[in-house]
Description:
- There is one protein chain.
- The protein has 7 helices and 21 strands.
- The strands form 6 sheets. Strands 6, 7, 8, 11, 12 and 13 form a 6-stranded antiparallel beta sheet that branches. Strands 1-2-5-3 form a 4-stranded mixed beta sheet, covered by helices on one side.
- The protein is globular.
Amino acid sequence: MKVQENAPISSLTTMRLGGNARFVVTISDVDDIVKALDFAKERNLPFWFMGGGANTIGHDDSFNGVIILNRLTGIEVLEELDTEITIKGMGGVIWDDFVSFACEKGYSGIETMSMIPGTLGAAPVQNIGAYGQDLSQVLVSVEAFDVKTGEFVELQKSEIASGYRKTRFNSGSDVGRFFITAVIVRLKKGELKPPFYNSLQRYIDEHNETDFSPQNIRRMVCEIRSNKLPDPETTASAGSFFKNVYLEKEQADIAESKGIPLWRDENGRGKVNSGWLIEQCGFKGKTLHGFVVSDKAALILINQSAKNYKDLELARGEIIQAVKDKFGITLEQEPVEIINA
């Protein structure tokens, strides 16, 4: 267990905003979790669990508490059959490394989620997804330390209540209750079948792709994402800053009649790309209070020169208001924010 005092939150998050944290504790062994929580309890300080910081925003004032970083590593095949595989990855594993591991073995289920930034432990918190796949479709269970009971637990998929970017981990009374130590998924042997999610299908059509194996789908997704999304290692950004918008069937019918492009699921619900809405409001490529709305994907905010949270608040507010005025749709922010209780 490694302890740092007065560590800048801006260095822990990919948006690179935030004051200092009173303490930052790095966990690289499961036994350290209890020690880290005891460390916070002994000092009567709040704690905040964090993975790679790709979906986290810091505020200007310092966090008078303990940030506990998940750096547990390791990937294990629990069961491999002719048609499926069950894989367990520790919470600190880089998500894209986990996807790469599965694709190299030829198993399908997470390949279109390639290059999503962050750690495996953070993935079930917001039920990450991309290009028609999301984690809940393959999730078996999550292993975690339950702060409330003081015990290590295994939560089955049915206990997590996964929805679009929402689970029990990031909503309601269970926020901050579980430190996720490992994630277990079950994948299928084989390949995806067309039609694919809009932008992936366009790439396939333009390049006359016919190989839909997990490795090749991963290659295509990586190329698409590399061309339109900033690398958080080199560019200050929280990735997709706004959630895409889900509409019930009736709402989707109305939106479609107004010319709003959307992707339908099997129940007729529609998903509207928030980037398209933002682009239609004229923000694509525009600079707002030190933040650039990406000229490649308008749902991305890039911190070009902003130094404080107030700048982000102003930029976000302008975008949300413009979309609401034009389309009657209220965008929601995807990253969570570290704030003092």
